[in-house]
Amino acid sequence: MKKVFFILFAISMFHHTTISLFGQWVHLPRPATIQPLVKVEFINRWTGWATGSGSVIVKTTDGGLNWFFQSIDLGYPKGLDGLDMIDENTGYIAGGYETILKTTNGGTNWNIISNIPSNNGNSNNDVCFINAQTGWICSWLGRILKTTTGGLSWDTINVGSSGKLNDIQFIDSQRGWVCGDVGNLRRTTNGGSTWIYNGVLTGADIVGIQFINKDTGWAIAQTNNLVFRTNNGGINWDTIAVLPGGNNQYSYCIAFMNSNTGWIGGASGRIFRTNNGGINWFNEDYDLAGIVHHFSLYKDSLAWCVGSNKIKLRNVYNVEQLSQTGWIPQNSGSLNPLRDIFMLDSSTGWISGTSDTVLYTSNGGNNWIKRPTGGSYDIRSIQFLNNQTGWGVGKQGIIIKSTNAGLSWINQSINISDWINNVQFINMNTGFIVCGQGSIRKTTNSGQNWFNLTSLSVDLYGIQMQNENTGWVCGNFGAIVYTTNSGINWTQQITGTSVRINSIFFANNSLGWAVGGFGYLDGIILKTTNGGNNWYSTYTGSQSLNKIKFTGIDTGYVVGDSGTVLFTSNSGNSWEIQNTGNYNNFYGICFISHKTGWITGGYGSVYKTTSNGEPIGISGNNNNLPTRFNLLQNYPNPFNPVTSIRFQIPKLSFVKLIIYDELGREITTLVNEKLKSNNYEIKWDSNDYSSGIYFCTLIVEGKIIDAKKMILIK
Fold it and tell me: In the 8-state DSSP scheme, what is residue 663?
């Protein structure tokens, strides 16, 4: 079934503050083929297929992390250019030289409906089914094939053109559209029995069409960058835009989510995005080598695209998904891996990453500002002692220090060729670093000089100093060592594992945890209750775990590869998975209270929670449905620390309920989702905030409805 694609962006604005909720395109492990992939389709978040040249058919059951072949011998390497899966079992493929394939068992077997085992005959370019029985295929020579018998028999229809037909879409059994070479664009209102010609829109080939309903659709030309739109079902088409990039910027596919937001895939891996119905376009991504051929979306929450022999994933943050997670994406403005985050308080913080990436926020991550380091450094760990003074460490012995919140940096690097993986300062003078070559070093003069405490035979990755004297260091092959005399002596502890230990955290001198793993193997969490004299495992998994933080003796968080976020409320005895909707690797984590924290990861990923990472609940009742949007005064008011906020929504709308402080800075978002007509109530726990005046603001479809003054007294 031809799906409506692509990605939703949610934006809220208040006092000139803009928050964009969006994901990044990330490379997935590519299938073991050198053949270009031209179509991709997912029927849920885990199960999808891709087809391409050389008769390639691949399938995934884990969201694209792993792919296995379902290809069959067609007697000649065919380009399989059309793919449409009806459900997890039934689907169709159309391809070169009369190829039509069908599966009724999820691709375990592909039955050949039609095939010429040579390079003779017509080629099928796209396929569209509206159910398991009724579908259409467009081909060369102006030919359309139609079946109402699940492919057992086909009727041949000629649209009145002898050219190639590139893309076909039906939204029901009667209404459909097809596009082709030399500006060919046609529509049908009788199931394809006859096709109405719209005239030549352009001399260029039209390679993609996309309709979101019976009236609104778009089409793209391949070679002259033209974008067309219709608002009356294809009776009339207007040229609404010319894509940026010059005449060499070919286009190949188009996908729209709604009347405003859409994407176009093109040559050189470029992906263009529009937020105003196609009038303006900007380049969103361009590092997928070759051609972007096709997009697929599952329930507006995850998107995939294929180009050349690679596959990319984009996380989609929509109203449904945001209501199911307590982790809200923030815009880092970076596509680099973000390795670490340090938040001084609810407002001020820094992020470090690769390729000279240091980011700064003064408003809790609503905006992240780049702080150049003066070099092309890869900064793996960052820490600040106050709002001015901090250090970053990284590749090839890099140590940098700032005394002005990161506006400028002083180089304090040491002469080693490997990574410095972690840094921790106890006070303005005393700090420790751990290195990839097994070195533990210390400074007592604010980083001007570093002296070696010990050199171990394994790479070291994490450090946790409880105070100037007592601390632990972890590393490769299950290594954990500890000191009780400020690093003069280090004692090895027995962990019972050979897995790489990436991070360690102690809540006090007795209670601690460590996490480890590498790649897609050996994720592990260890716990000790006697200072590390004995360690035991409380969790094992298939993904590497990279960082651990506890906010007390009971509540803790772990982040790891492939979007892993784990949460415990019982001191790590058991762990539950939290959903962000992101499959990037996560590397950094920082909490300033039991409920408020951030995580960072691959491709510029930053997330924030103010609810322990748990979904924020909203209660509603259907009594006396409202007739207008309304925000009621919170009760009690003044309050400490919990207050109830009631609001009314008269019709299905995208709703945001945001708390701002007296200066207009966003403090937290309580609601960020599409709500049905109802009366709603939500509680705000202000335990993490100081006494003062706050404003609760109701925003519907981007428009401010009302704001209520709230007084917090502690």
Answer: T
Encoding tokens for residue 644? 């109830």
Using CA atoms, how far apart are residues 306 and 220, in angstroms rounded to an integer?
18
CB proximity list for 7: less than 8 A, separation 6 or greater? 22, 23, 257, 261, 263, 273, 297, 300, 303, 314, 316
Which residue type does 367 have?
N
**For all residues of the chain together, what is the average pLDDT?**
85
Nearest to 85 by CA among 94, 98, 96: 94
Report the share of the chain in percent with pLDDT over 70. 88
Paired with 535 in beta bridges are none
Please, what CATH class does the domain formed by 619-712 belong to?
Answer: mainly beta
Asked if 201 and 220 count as a contact pair (C-beta separation under 8 A), the reply is: no
395: three-class secondary structure by DSSP: helix
How far are the Cα atoms of 125, 264, 435, 689 from residue 660, in angstroms, in the given order?
A: 53, 37, 42, 11
Q: Most confidently modeled of 10-19, 44-53, 222-231?
A: 222-231
| Residue 511 CB neighbour total at 10 angstroms | 17
**Do 10-317 and 328-609 come out as alike in CATH topology?**
yes
User: What does the domain layout of the chain look like in residue ranges?
Assistant: 10-317, 328-609, 619-712
CA-wise closest residue to 48 among 356, 352, 305, 384:
305
CATH T-level fold of 10-317: Methylamine Dehydrogenase; Chain H (2.130.10)
- Strand runs (DSSP E) across 192-348, as ranges? 196-197, 206-211, 217-221, 226-230, 238-242, 251-256, 262-266, 271-274, 282-285, 292-298, 302-307, 310-315, 328-331, 338-343
- Could you tell me the fold of the domain covering 328-609? Methylamine Dehydrogenase; Chain H (2.130.10)
pLDDT digits over 88-99, tens only? Answer: 899 999 999 999
Average pLDDT of span 487-500: 94
Q: Count CB neighbours of 212 within 10 A.
A: 17
Tens digit of each residue's pLDDT (9 = 90 or more) over 74-115 = 988 899 999 999 988 999 999 999 999 999 999 999 999 998
541 bridge partner residues: 523
Identify residue 661 by its one-letter amino acid code.
D
The model carries a pTM of 0.55
